[in-house]
């Protein structure tokens, strides 16, 4: 019934609006233009690049080189205009939203609320699938053969499949929500971030629940060893294995997408001149989603480094391989993305997501160090009540001089002057950054002016050359 109501809302809004949605038409035109640009290997420049940076001419270049640069400059201006059309599209969407009637606006907001519930339902279904797959995998972990291997890797398979399928479905939902291009990208990234980080949290929470017997470590299977020794005789190894599986499957999915999807799509588009293939075009290289994949991989490494010490080395090898694979697919299979993501927004957003991943990994580490009893069957901490106990034990085994020095470092006599000095250095760095920022802005303005002067001189040169040519032709006659 929910999907029937959503379909009715879509139809009613389309009928009341009385015309097609201009954002979709503009997106299609932008896609076609970008596809033609990618087929001719035209460069794509950012909107932030100034005309002076693109049109500046070195004084040592010859006039023939200056005239030869005219066509590339024109192409750069055309591509820059195409990138600027994204802002025009957003303005048109805002104007259309302002012109909606009250009934149309109510239907649009109702449709967006329903789509939000659908997206949350998909994400919740992915979380539930991870929970069920993890429990099922641990219950069937003793089986051998192919089924045992599948059960062993089932949580990683479900998480990787959810991270791959659910964002694609959310992208289709975003088409129905009819937000502006920048808002659509931000919402897609927020949903993907929430899905990836919380799915990792659901996996860890399920594991901790089973390891600690639902938090009651003094009853049931946890009464003897204060952890579930029957299912997890070496629980640190099991957690490290899960993080290793996530890293491995993330790498395999990227390679499989490159070999089985992007290369065949490029071959079909280049060699089969069908209207359907030309409409789809080549694969877009979307920078935000690729950076988000790197952030997710780094979060998995931070989470599992305590339990799998070689995981950072494995992840480094994985990132090196992915770099060259992404480089190949970028230059061979992809075209520029139609919807751009501003660099100023992306810097803050991805740093914030990376901070969230670090926070998740820190919570996992603190809980593992301070709460759960180490495995009695393996590991260097098996004779301690928790992993953190080795820190004070090692501290009190130090010489008296070292203990006094560390006590002084942790005292107020050292921390307060250090904090004051840090504040002074921070203020100095902020002031220096402000001065450098003003200098950079001044230099950019000067560069633009010099570029315009050079353009003026080139035009004057061309004008004088034509006059001299006309004078020579008249003298020859």
UniProtKB/TrEMBL annotation:
Organism: Stegastes partitus (bicolor damselfish)
Keywords: Membrane, Signal, Transmembrane, Transmembrane helix
Signal sequence range: 1-20
Composition-biased stretches (Low complexity): 25-38
Membrane topology field: Multi-pass membrane protein
Region span, Disordered: 24-62
Location(s) in or outside the cell: Membrane
GO molecular function: mechanosensitive monoatomic ion channel activity
Family: Belongs to the TMC family.
Domain TMC residues, every copy: 234-343
TM spans (from-to): 115-134, 146-165, 185-208, 300-325, 346-372, 414-436
Keyword DNA repair: no
InterPro entries found in the cross-reference section: TMC (IPR038900), TMC_dom (IPR012496)
Gene Ontology CC: one annotated term: plasma membrane
Keyword Transmembrane helix: yes
Designated name of the protein: Transmembrane channel-like protein
Superkingdom, natural source: Eukaryota
